[in-house]
């Protein structure tokens, strides 16, 4: 289990991370979200011992991280780094050896991983001959091929099309099923909502949201109502607590409420003649919460 205990990191007068604490158990996925400059990459670098915190500490299975521990980590940095004149195979072997693996352990796995991520190229091809998307997949493979127990992914979905993003999601879920502890940052809230059990949102280095995705959404209340009925927009706007009414492309009204309880009166009126096709009160999406917490003008 990864434990981050009350870490703080300053750079001169700038506080990059302040009073951050969380843990990730085996088989759990945690999302770390926030605006650019919120402290996400600094947090990753502290976990990896690339930066020393001013206060607090990081533990893996109740012990400080050692060289042996780092061999069990897979890290994908935001700034991708491959050697363009080196073949795919030699690249993967090299990075695996840095994690304490032998060539004889990794070489038989390469074809399987290239097929798993649908890399368009032969293992004997030099990296510079690959498209950017395929280069990114090779870097992802180098992060996962040694079967790490802790996986840190800094903006892993950046630049991936939907098909390749799904391949990455499958790879993350497979690592989770094998018991890995996984933490990743992303500006795509759909990825976070689909993959993560828990999340932390940083703002100016401090955690402003911390908990399971479900609990965080629920704490903002079921104030988003999806409705398909005979009530018109003008009818809906007259109800107490209605802030805004929109209509989707498939003719469903979206009603934004001040409070969850405001939906009851609308439900009673909409169903007074019996069945209606749609009535669903939902909490705001993670993206809507992100914008609310960050401040839309700043995002």
TrEMBL record:
Residues 2-229 form the ABC transporter domain. It comes from the Bacteria. Keywords: ATP-binding, Nucleotide-binding, Transport. It holds the Pfam family DrrA1-3_C. The keyword RNA-binding does not apply. Gene3D superfamilies: P-loop containing nucleotide triphosphate hydrolases (3.40.50.300). The keyword Transport applies. One of its GO terms (molecular function) is ATP binding. This is ABC-2 type transport system ATP-binding protein. It comes from Alkalibacterium gilvum.
């Amino acid at each position: 289990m990864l434990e981050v205990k009350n870490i703080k990191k300053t750079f001169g007068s700038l506080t990059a991370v302040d009073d951050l604490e969380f843990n990730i158990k085996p088989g759990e996925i945690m999302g770390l979200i926030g605006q650019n400059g919120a402290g996400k990459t600094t947090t990753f670098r502290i976990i990896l011992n690339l930066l020393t915190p001013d206060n607090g500490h990081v533990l893996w299975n109740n012990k400080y991280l050692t060289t042996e521990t780092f061999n069990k980590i897979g890290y994908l940095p935001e700034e991708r780094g491959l050697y363009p004149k080196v073949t795919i195979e030699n690249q993967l072997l090299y990075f695996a050896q840095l994690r304490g693996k032998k060539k004889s352990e990794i070489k038989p796995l390469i074809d399987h991983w290239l097929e798993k991520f649908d890399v368009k190229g032969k293992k004997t091809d030099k990296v510079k001959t690959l498209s950017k998307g395929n280069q990114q997949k090779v870097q992802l493979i180098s992060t996962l091929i040694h079967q790490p127990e802790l996986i840190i992914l800094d903006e892993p979905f950046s630049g991936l099309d939907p098909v390749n993003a799904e391949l990455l999601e499958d790879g993350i879920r497979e690592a989770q099923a094998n018991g890995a502890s996984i933490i990743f940052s992303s500006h795509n809230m759909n990825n976070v909502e689909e993959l993560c059990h828990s999340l932390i949102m940083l703002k100016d280095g401090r955690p402003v949201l911390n908990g399971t995705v479900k609990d965080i959404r629920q704490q903002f209340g079921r104030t988003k109502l999806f409705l398909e009925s005979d009530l018109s927009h003008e009818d809906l706007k007259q109800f107490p607590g209605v802030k805004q009414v929109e209509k989707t492309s498939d003719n469903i009204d979206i009603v934004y409420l001040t409070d969850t309880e405001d939906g009851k009166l609308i439900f009673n009126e909409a169903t007074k003649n019996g069945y209606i096709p749609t009535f669903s009160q939902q909490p705001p999406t993670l993206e809507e919460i992100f914008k609310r917490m960050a401040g839309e003008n700043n995002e």
